[in-house]
């Protein structure tokens, strides 16, 4: 006897139902040989549709084993199971499950598109299948324009598109009238005669009578497995296998898949233009909102970091005396400009500057302002991170030469620029204001 095409051993399928476990299939053993027409019958809830889903690799058993041509499906991943369904299985459903936006030709071509079949071969095979099933004049009609029997024939053509060596039919006549149901069963009988293995799930014994074997399931167990009186061949008779057309390969196949995917997307969007527009608008608004929030957050972060840096968080100030506010600090002379040079030479120090400070009165003409004057080196501006609005910083030569050069801030700028009102100057840079501290007034040049 030939090895079975489909073999099931100790199959069990259970589902959680609240705190209980619902056992749908329990200890099922079954062999189906190539070329058989098998009917699985039983009442609603008996487990026959669950068994067909497992045989078609649409579901996995909770326990037990299932082999296809000797290959255990329990060891196959989702991609391998999908490839098995694509190349060897065809499905016929009670409610057809056709895509309403596609014509009969478009629905039949869907499996071939996923298989990467070349477009020319795909179109030729689709036309031949529909013509054979009596839909030659209706192949460009959509499901809504076809009768129930015609829709079921479209689903049969779809099941055969990639070869359909094994056809699973779940209540194929359940939604049809008597005449259409007989036509569908006649087609299934012809496919069986050509060598297709057909697994038929039904609760109608008249439909099951067309099969070679009738397997009855009750409460998740096989209670009967008998040949019918109309069986025309032994169960182990060899049956020819229908070969699927060869797939396209290389860049051309990839190009065809991309084009077909793009066409399918357009066809899916075209009947629902308003919904598509609103969906795209929502996506655009969402992306724009995310980008805006990220941009605002990044900008705010940069501003905060800049403000923190301006506070001198990476700057250490060293004062003489025992502590901050020591009244004797002015008399302490342990800190010298040489200490600043020594600190600047350390590898972890970017720059260092010595400074002394006092208060003075800035004068320009008849205008005065109380100011704080600091004596600093040329490194002061880098240490403080200062930028000039006008003029320039003084350099090392000005410090070594003890030149009377000043850089003023905006508050001190007003009395220095008083001459602007008389039209003699437009900037503070280059002016020569004076300063009076503890002694005689001293003139200086404003560099910036």
Automatic annotation (TrEMBL):
<dbReference type="GO" id="GO:0022857">
    <property type="term" value="F:transmembrane transporter activity"/>
</dbReference>
<dbReference type="InterPro" id="IPR003439">
    <property type="entry name" value="ABC_transporter-like_ATP-bd"/>
</dbReference>
<keyword id="KW-0813">Transport</keyword>
<dbReference type="InterPro" id="IPR025857">
    <property type="entry name" value="MacB_PCD"/>
</dbReference>
<keyword id="KW-0067">ATP-binding</keyword>
<dbReference type="GO" id="GO:0005524">
    <property type="term" value="F:ATP binding"/>
</dbReference>
<dbReference type="InterPro" id="IPR017871">
    <property type="entry name" value="ABC_transporter-like_CS"/>
</dbReference>
<keyword id="KW-0812">Transmembrane</keyword>
<dbReference type="GO" id="GO:0016887">
    <property type="term" value="F:ATP hydrolysis activity"/>
</dbReference>
<feature type="domain" description="ABC transporter">
    <location>
        <begin position="6"/>
        <end position="244"/>
    </location>
</feature>
<dbReference type="GO" id="GO:0005886">
    <property type="term" value="C:plasma membrane"/>
</dbReference>
<keyword id="KW-0472">Membrane</keyword>
<dbReference type="Pfam" id="PF00005">
    <property type="entry name" value="ABC_tran"/>
</dbReference>
<feature type="region of interest" description="Disordered">
    <location>
        <begin position="414"/>
        <end position="448"/>
    </location>
</feature>
<dbReference type="GO" id="GO:1902495">
    <property type="term" value="C:transmembrane transporter complex"/>
</dbReference>
<comment type="similarity">
    <text>Belongs to the ABC transporter superfamily. Macrolide exporter (TC 3.A.1.122) family.</text>
</comment>
<dbReference type="Pfam" id="PF12704">
    <property type="entry name" value="MacB_PCD"/>
</dbReference>
<dbReference type="InterPro" id="IPR027417">
    <property type="entry name" value="P-loop_NTPase"/>
</dbReference>
<dbReference type="InterPro" id="IPR003593">
    <property type="entry name" value="AAA+_ATPase"/>
</dbReference>
<keyword id="KW-0547">Nucleotide-binding</keyword>
<dbReference type="InterPro" id="IPR015854">
    <property type="entry name" value="ABC_transpr_LolD-like"/>
</dbReference>
<protein>
    <submittedName>
        <fullName>Macrolide export ATP-binding/permease protein MacB</fullName>
    </submittedName>
</protein>
<keyword id="KW-1133">Transmembrane helix</keyword>
<dbReference type="InterPro" id="IPR017911">
    <property type="entry name" value="MacB-like_ATP-bd"/>
</dbReference>
<feature type="transmembrane region" description="Helical">
    <location>
        <begin position="277"/>
        <end position="297"/>
    </location>
</feature>
